[in-house]
Amino acid sequence: MRVLWLRLGLLAALLAVWEVAGRAANPLLAVPPSAVLPALRDLLLLRSYPELPASLWLTLREIGAAYMLAVAAGLGCGFMLGMHRLVGRVWGPMLAALYAVPAVVWYPSLMLFFGLEAASKIAFGFLLGFFPITLAVLAGVRQVNPQLVTVAHAYGAGAVTVFRRVMLPSMLFTLVGGLRTGLALCVIGVIVGEILGSKAGIGTLINHAYGLLRTADYVALVLVTLVLVVGSDVLASLLERRAQRWTE
Predict the structure, then answer these.
(1) What is the pLDDT of residues 165-218, one digit of tens each?
(2) Is the CB of residue 12 less than 8 Å from the CB of residue 196?
(3) Which of 219, 193, 189 is nearest to 206 (CA)?
(4) CB distance 181 to 136 below 8 Å
(5) Are the CB atoms for 79 and 159 separated by under 8 Å?
(6) If you ran DSSP here, which 8-state letter would residue 84 be given?
(7) What's the confidence (pLDDT) of residue 160?
(8) Residues 111 and 120: beta-carbon distance below 8 Å
(9) Averaged pLDDT in 10-residue chunks for the chain of 248 residues
(10) Distance between CA atoms of 241 and 244, rounded to whole angstroms?
(11) Secondary structure of the chain: what % helix, strand, coil (to 5)?
C-alpha cells in the first residue's frame, strides 16, 4: 500500500507540474491536462477521429503479425546458433553488431521495398523484435549446464526429454525475458513505422494531429498509444512471472 500511495503521489505531482507548465507555455506547442481531458473524451467518443477503432485494429494486426514472425524466426535462429557451437561462435557476434545499429536507419529501405502499406510496418516491427529474441535464446542455451545434459543422456533420456526436463527449465527465464523485450520492440517498431510513413494506423493519426498543431488531440492519441504499449508489457510481465514460478 505504501508503494501504491507513493506512486499516486508521484503521478499527482507530475500532473500538477504539467498543468502549471502547460498553462504557461504556447498553447500550440503544449497543453495542460485540463485541456487534454476534453480532447481524450472526444477521441474516445469518436468525435474527433471516427476512424480510431479501425486504426487501432490495423495497428494491433500489424503488431501481431510482426511479433509472430519475430518469435518464429528468433526461436529458430537462436536454437540453431545455440545447438551448433561453431555456428554460434561465428554468427553470434555478427548478430550482436547488427542489433547495435540504430534500427531506424533500416526503415527507408523497408519503405522502398514494401511501400507505405502494412508490410513495411510489419517488417520494421519484425526487425526490432527478431534480434532480442534470437540473442536471448542463444544466451539461454549457453547457460544450460552441460553436465546436467550429460547425466540425463547417461540415464537414457532422449533428445526431447533432455530438452523438456533439463534445458527448457534452465533457459526459460532468459527466454521469456527475450520474448517480453521482443514484444515491446515490435509494438514500438510498428507505431514508429506508422508515424514515419503510413496511410493508416494509430501512428498515422498521431502524425496527422501533430502536423495540424492539434496539440490536445495529439496528446490524447499519445495517451491511447501509451495504454496500448503498457498493456502489452503488463501481459508479457504476467507470463514472465508464471514462467519464473514454474522454474522454481
Answers:
(1) 666 666 777 788 888 888 888 888 888 888 887 778 888 888 888 888 888 888
(2) no
(3) 219
(4) yes
(5) no
(6) S
(7) 66
(8) yes
(9) 80 82 76 83 84 88 90 85 73 76 77 79 87 83 69 65 66 79 86 82 85 84 85 77 65
(10) 5
(11) 85, 0, 15
Three-state DSSP state, 145 = coil
Contact 190, 125 (CB under 8 A): yes
C-alpha cell at 182: 521482443
Structure confidence at residue 151 (pLDDT)? 67
> What is the secondary structure of 151-175 as a DSSP string?
HHHHTT--HHHHIIIIIHHHHHHHH
End-to-end CA distance of the chain, in Å? Answer: 27
- Evaluate the CA torsion angle 188, 189, 190, 196 in order and state its sign: positive
On the CB side of 79, CA atoms within 13 Å amount to: 11
Superfamily of domain 35-247: MetI-like (1.10.3720.10)
Q: In this structure, which amino acid lies at residue 130?
A: F
Cα–Cα distances (Å) from 75 to 44, 91, 112, in that order, read: 38, 15, 28
Give SS3 for 56: helix
Contact 62, 122 (CB under 8 A): yes
pTM listed for this prediction: 0.80
